[in-house]
């Protein structure tokens, strides 16, 4: 009994030490993401500013190349913002600024920010939103929408349709759906896709590997849950994926 007790005590000490080391590594990783994201943000802002100045001074000079610069700077900036927010979420620093607004306006603004990407793939985005006012953090829900629309665009076939709907549930919750006509998500991955750094790996479909940092959906989940809501996905019969989130119309006491 004494030997067994001693062994259990040693095992407990080893596990506690390993746990402390893992926590330290996790904090170091979060700090690294935060630091590198801040470092990247400054030159990206400078590049975008320079491109804007050139386009104003020389409006007829190779606009397609300036568009390429702007589009890719915007993409990199979004990734940097995602990493910064990921660091804040890891540290429990995300705070919401709830105010009354229109989800429809936020959704339409998010759609508008993807005009060039939609045009490049000949996509159609069809919004169907109500005029209902509710309380939410406009910046954070805009971020959720841009992440979901980014995924929908990435996996949609050329010429496809993306449907975005918003509706009120029982006068208490608002539900938003983003539906695409892509390959959908294999069932075995559906419970994992909202985990940080999780990427769907499917040998039969290389499109799952395209341009994803693996934190966008994790950020969406954290921001929706911070509002007191929930988010999930479903495959659409035939082809496509549907991402859905509910948030309360008013702050939860």
Strand content: 15-25%
State the major sheet: 5 strands, mixed
- The H-and-E topology, N to C, reads as HHEHHEEHEEHEE
- Percent in helix: 40-55%
Structural class computed from helices and strand pairing: alpha+beta
Major beta sheet, strand line-up:
2-4-5-7-6
- How confident is the prediction overall: mean pLDDT? 81
N-C termini distance: 52 Å
SS elements, strand count: 7
**Which descriptor suits the 3D outline?**
globular
As a whole number of angstroms, the C-alpha radius of gyration is: 22 Å
Describe this structure in words.
- With 253 residues, the protein is an alpha+beta fold.
- It has 6 helices and 7 strands.
- The protein has helices at residues 2-57, 63-90, 103-112, 115-120, 138-155, 216-226; strands at residues 99-102, 124-128, 133-136, 161-169, 173-179, 230-235, 241-248.
- Helix 3 (103-112) packs across helix 5 (138-155) and helix 5 (138-155) packs antiparallel against helix 6.
- Residues 205-209 have low confidence and may be disordered.
Q: What characteristics describe this protein?
A:
globular, five-stranded mixed sheet, two-stranded antiparallel sheet, single chain, 17% strand, 51% helix
Topology:
Blueprint: H1 2-57, H2 63-90, E1 99-102, H3 103-112, H4 115-120, E2 124-128, E3 133-136, H5 138-155, E4 161-169, E5 173-179, H6 216-226, E6 230-235, E7 241-248
Parallel strand pairs: 2-4
Antiparallel strand pairs: 1-3, 4-5, 5-7, 6-7
Helix pairs in contact: 1-2, 2-6, 3-5, 5-6
């Amino acid at each position: 009994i004494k030997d067994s007790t001693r062994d259990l005590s040693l095992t407990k000490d080893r596990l506690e030490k390993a746990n402390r080391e893992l926590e330290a590594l996790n904090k170091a990783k979060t700090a690294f993401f935060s630091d590198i994201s801040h470092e990247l943000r400054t030159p990206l802002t400078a590049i975008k500013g320079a491109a804007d100045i050139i386009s104003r001074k020389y409006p007829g000079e190779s606009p397609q190349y300036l568009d390429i610069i702007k589009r890719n700077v915007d993409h990199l900036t979004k990734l940097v913002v995602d990493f910064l927010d990921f660091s804040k979420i890891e540290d429990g620093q995300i705070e919401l600024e709830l105010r009354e607004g229109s989800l429809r306006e936020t959704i339409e603004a998010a759609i508008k920010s993807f005009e060039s990407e939609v045009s490049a793939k000949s996509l159609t985005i069809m919004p169907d939103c109500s005029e209902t006012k509710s309380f939410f953090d406009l910046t954070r829900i805009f971020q959720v929408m841009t992440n979901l629309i980014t995924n929908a665009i990435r996996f949609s076939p050329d010429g496809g349709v993306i449907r975005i709907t918003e509706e009120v549930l029982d006068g208490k919750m608002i539900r938003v759906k983003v539906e695409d006509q892509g390959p959908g998500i294999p069932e075995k991955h559906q419970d994992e896709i909202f985990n940080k750094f999780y990427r769907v790996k499917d040998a039969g479909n290389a499109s799952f590997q395209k341009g994803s940092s693996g934190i966008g959906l994790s950020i969406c989940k954290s921001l929706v849950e911070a509002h007191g809501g929930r988010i999930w996905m479903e495959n659409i019969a035939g082809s496509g994926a549907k991402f859905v989130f509910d948030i309360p119309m008013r702050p939860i006491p």
